[in-house]
Amino acid sequence: MKKRRKYLYSLGVAYYPEKEMLRLQKQAMLGWQFVGMNRWGFLKFEQQPPQAKKFAVDFFEGELSEESDYIALYEASGWHYISHYRKRYYYFEGNLDAPSIFSDQDSYQERINAEQRYLIKRAFVVTAIGALLLAMLYSIKTLWDWQNSPIWSFLFGICTGLLFVPAMVAIVSYLMRKLYKDRATYYNKPETIAKRQKVVRDLLLMALAGAIVGGIIGYIF
Amino acid sequence: MEEGLTDATYLILLALLKPQHGYAIMKQVHEISQGSFEIGPATMYTILKKLTKREWIVLDETAERKKIYRMTDLGRSVLEKDIQRRKLFYEIGAGFVQQIGGSEHEKA
């Protein structure tokens, strides 16, 4: 018999891991076992008898060859590997008495910083793709003048938008750092910070900041 | 003066007086500290990476392709220095408690 499944949208594993883990815990209590996050950001669950357990997610910066040793450390402390997202985010589950995966503030802060660097790096890759696409748009223009076509405006808009992704990531990261300044001090109490994480409020703030920055950029150019 | 090792790093280096697997280090830290200290897996991974970068430990691959951490000479000298530092701090503390702490107790 096929297991019943359901999907929930992820809050964003990079910015709200603590809150997301509490969600997974709640779903397990309701009889929905977390199995993984797909590439479009949907959390996948399978129906199972309700269980009381904890979840943890870690950002992994290492090489693929280190993966098995990395997972072995978790298994040795009572955390079982579930799945990974893009070989960067690794999900684990454990009993309610499993120790927190971070046992000091420094290492948690380092994890947050490493993740920041990764996000910025990825944003610049997006910029490079945007620049490449723009170059292609212009090279097509030499063969066929399509600048008055709506397709041109549409594609041009998207590609230009891609150029500004690093700026967006930088703004979001900056605001998140300000909003949750003491996040690293809760290295072993993720539930405490989870309760303070307000996704809708943050989204509104980001939208406002984006509008202001977008307005300034629009005004200058 | 150089900064001392954190307790976690100190215990990990002690565990590595004998070359070990990452997960064996976790268990040993628990034993060495008589169950009083537990290092989370994410923290353990971060510290092992950091110590490798500082060349205090190296990752060797055995014939069976198992990965074993080994302490370098540099790592060992850092550990020995920290044991001395901890010893000094212990002696200062114990001495003070005996001298001053004792008389406070008598007054009370």
If you had to describe this structure to a student in words, what would you say it looks like?
The complex is a heterodimer of chains A (221) and B (108). Chain A is of the alpha+beta class. Chain A folds into two domains: 5-94, no CATH class; 105-220, no CATH class. Helices cover 54% and strands 16% of the residues of chain A. Chain A has helices spanning 17-29, 67-76, 105-143, 150-163, 165-179, 190-196, 199-220, and strands at residues 5-9, 32-37, 42-47, 54-59, 79-85, 89-94. In chain A, helix 3 (105-143) runs antiparallel to helix 4 and helix 5 (165-179) crosses helix 7. Chain A is elongated, with a radius of gyration of 21 Å. The model of chain A has no long low-confidence stretch (mean pLDDT 90). Chain B is mainly alpha-helical and 108 residues long. Chain B has a single domain (7-107), classed as Arc Repressor Mutant, subunit A (Orthogonal Bundle), CATH 1.10.10. Helices cover 63% and strands 9% of the residues of chain B. Chain B contains four helices and two strands, in the order αααββα. In chain B, strands 1-2 form a two-stranded antiparallel ribbon. In chain B, a hairpin with a 5-residue loop joins strand 1 and strand 2. In chain B, helix 1 packs across helix 2. The chains are: A alpha+beta (221), B mainly alpha (108). At the A-B interface, helix 2 and helix 3 of A face helix 2 and helix 3 of B.
